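User: Predict the complex with dinuclear copper ion.
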Amino acid sequence: MAITSPANRLWWKEPIHRVELIWIVIAFLWGLAMFFTMVYWHAIGEQNLANTTYKITPAAFSAKAERMAEQYKVRDELGIPVVRPPPGGDVYLLGRIWMWWPILELEKGQSYRIHLSAMEYSHGFSLQPVNINIQVQPGYEHVFTMTPTDTGQFSILCNEYCGFGHHTMASPLYVVESGAARSPQE
Ligand code: CUA
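Assistant: Here is the predicted structure with dinuclear copper ion placed in the model:
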C-alpha cells in the first residue's frame, strides 16, 4: 500500500511504457530458459539423481542406520563404523552435526538403494569428484539407486550451510572390487 493513493486508482488500465514491456518479456523468457535448463540438466547432467522421498522421523531413520551399521560393520575409522552393506540392498546414510554416518564401503558394479536423511538440520549430500548432489532434510527419507563404476576413495561433502562445523562435514566413501575380501576388524 502506498502512503498516498495514486491519482488514477485503476493503475492497471494505464498504458505500459515500451521499455518496461521489453523488460517484462526478457524476464519472462529468461525464467522459461532457466526452467527448461533445470529439466534438461536433470536428464543430461547426471548430478541430481531422480529420488523418491518419504516422510520419516529422525529417530526412526537413525534406528535403521544403526541397525545396518551393527549388522555390517567391517572396521572403525576414528570411532566411526565403516559399513559394508550387501550388494543390492538398502543403505542408510545419516547427515548429522557434523558428519555423514556411518562410513560406507560399496562394491564396484553393484547397485544399492541409498537412503538419505538428516538428524537436526538440512545438509547437502555432495559426492565428489563425481559431483552428485542431493539436498537432505530432517523428517524426510530420500531414496535413489546408485551403482559405483570406479573403485577408490570418494568424498561426501556437505554443500549446504548447517552451522559451525559445516566446513568439517566430510566423510570418505570407499568403493572396492566386487567380491573383495572384507577388511578385518582392527
Ligand atoms: Cu552439513 Cu553443511
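Residues 95, 98, 123, 158, 160-162, 166, 169 surround dinuclear copper ion (CB under 6 Å).
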